[in-house]
Amino acid sequence: MKKDKTNLTGAHIREKRRALAQGRWKRRASAIAWYGLLAEVFFLPLSPGAATVALLVGIAGTALRFYVDKDFHFRHLRFDVPAVLFVAISALSVLSSPDRGFSFYNYYNLVGVYVLTYLLIGQNVREPWQMKSILRMACAAAVIVLLYGYYQFLFGIDISSMKWVDGDAFPELRKRVFSTWENPNILAGYLDIIICLAFGLFMKCRDRERRILLGAFMLAAAACLAMTYARGACLVIAVILAGYGALRDRRVLAACVVVIALLFAVDPMLYERITSVFTKVDTSTEMRLAFWESTVAMIQDHPFLGIGWGAYWMVYPEYDFYLQGANVLIVHAHNIYLNYMAEIGIPGAVAFFWFFFGTMVMALRTHFPEMPVRKLRGAFRWERLWTDWEESDILAGLSQGIGLAVLSVALNGLTDDLLFNIPSSMLLWMIAALAGVLSCMSPQKTAAEKKVGGNEFLARFRATAIQNAKEAKDKVQGKVEEKVHGMLYRETPVEPVGAAEAASDSKSAKTTAESSAPEPVKAADAPEASEAPQKPLDPMDELAEEVRKALEQRKQEEAAEAEAAAKETAAAPKGEVEAETLAAEPEQEGADTAGSAEDAASPASDRTEQTELTEEKAETAGKPEDGEKAEKKAEEKAEEKKKAKEADSHEENERDIKGDH
Questions:
Q1: Contact, 311 vs 103, CB < 8 A?
Q2: How many CB atoms lie within 10 A of CB 242?
């Protein structure tokens, strides 16, 4: 006994230790995945190598979390299907590349980090508070990028050797900042994204402190954007903000006009640079048109699988209509739409832009409940910046900002391929995953999921109720059939204690049978049964008991009639005795064949017919000259009436059985 207790105690202790160890591993896996995610968000605009390492750490933590945490399940986002199609078709495009080895290497490195970034964000961000931490990391990295951009502008960087500017068209332009990114155009695309994110938060913010801080951040980013002299990016952000102001809030339009006028007044070179986009004086404009012409020819020759992932620079010399063999490496088409169609074919481009524009529309259409506007409070206080910010405002602002950010990438893609840059593509897939997460957090989405769950519950409940009702119906029907069969083909004998006194003549017996019916007498063991507590009878049992009582009453009445007839025959002549004997036989046979509830409910009519038959036989038997003929005739009539009665009783029994069923 003690050994059994010791074994149970040891097993309990081991189980408890196992549960504690599993809990520790769950927390470790979650922490590894989460901190890897935050590290990638922070290092992405600063150091692509460090961001890739953080991504791999976060993915390892996520995989470990799936393994040790049984409650952590894979979550499907809204646009997973087009993303999977894009990945699959891009892999097939490798087969059409002139250098399959290079295309495959380029494919699994680039598409791999895109997909892993999408999975890391989409699977680990599930609570609103996590959005605050992600915003903090992204804001800290953006501030570093801006500060380094200002440093480059103030202390000067000679970019004449970098071939980013046509020196003949813009001889005075010697400074174009690029900060931590590869070139000014990529930096300008990144600044457009963070300005859109800050603008979305600014429009949904309801506190003066945060609005002041976000406004100052947007002005600093706009100034850094002007330092890049990226014409396309400057026009794109101006169009987005001005369009939003014209459609939603005229104050935004007025502020946009003021900021643009101020920048043009401070830097006339910016005005000259922006207006040159509508002319061909800059060689970059002519080169873009030539690249697009060559790319269209590539698409026409390879419409389905394209020229191969990342193989643009290898195929372009065959379609060179502008440079004519110059020693210049052209790596992309300076247009994301044409570039994707050329490299992975039209089907792959359709899958990607389904994912791309679907994410943009989803983010713009994701709504969160708006809180009532609060009065602006007194002095500016730094501690209010993150403490009291409503989660619904953060989520709504972030969702709107992501939609505008994707729109900025789409517009910038008309004149440049920002997604050719690896950190830019990783950033796009990151904000696409955040848009999917915000869609899952939306109250409308949650309500729809609850509604679907409720409908499933109601459907299951209805199916169960129908099944139970069907089973109950089958049980009741079987019970009814059993009771009816028992009533029709099985009788429970009841021993009568006494019978009604016989009348002196046939007329008095008939009158007594029609007018009065004797009550059924209890069985001999009735007193003992009455002492026990009686259970409520089933309705079918009550009906069977009533039928039995009616049958017993009929038997008693028939016995009384037989006794009365015997007394009459004792004083009658011999012919009358024989006639009465003959009349008694059909009575007895009719009593034996009576077994249905209808016959038991109407015994008076049967007795009337039998009494009339007896009287008729008695009258015919009273004539001495025709005694034998009368007797024979009486027997024939009795036989005919017996057959007719049996036929009627059989038909009534069939009708009763069908009605009971």
A1: yes
A2: 17
Concatenated DSSP letters of 578-638: HHHHHHHHHHHHHHHH--SHHHHH-HHHHHHHHHHHHHHHHHHHT-STTHHHHHHHHHHHH
Integer Cα distance of 313 and 481 in angstroms: 87
Query: Amino acid letter at 619?
Result: E
pLDDT computed for residue 563 by the predictor: 83
pLDDT in tens, 101-153: 999 999 988 999 999 999 999 999 998 889 989 999 999 999 999 999 999 88
> Other C-beta atoms within 10 Å of 316: how many?
22
Phi-psi region of 62 (alpha: psi -120 to 50; beta: other; left: phi over 0): alpha
Q: Which of 500, 499, 613, 503 is nearest to 567 (CA)?
A: 503
Q: What CA–CA distance (Å, rounded) separates 206 from 198?
A: 14
Position 468 scores a pLDDT of 73
CB contact set of 423 (below 8 Å; sequence gap of 6+): 44, 45, 48, 51, 181
Residue 441 has pLDDT above 50, yes or no: yes
**What are the tens digits of pLDDT across the range 207-261?**
788 888 899 999 999 999 999 988 889 999 999 999 998 888 888 889 999 999 9
Give dist(CA 91, CA 78) in Å, integer.
22
Cα dihedral 597→599→604→607 (10° resolution): -150
- How confident is the model at residue 499, as a pLDDT? 40
Three-state secondary structure call for residue 76: coil
Task: For residues 215 and 192, give the distance between their C-alpha atoms in angstroms, rounded to a whole number.
Answer: 15
Query: What's this model's pTM, rounded to 2 decimal places?
Result: 0.65
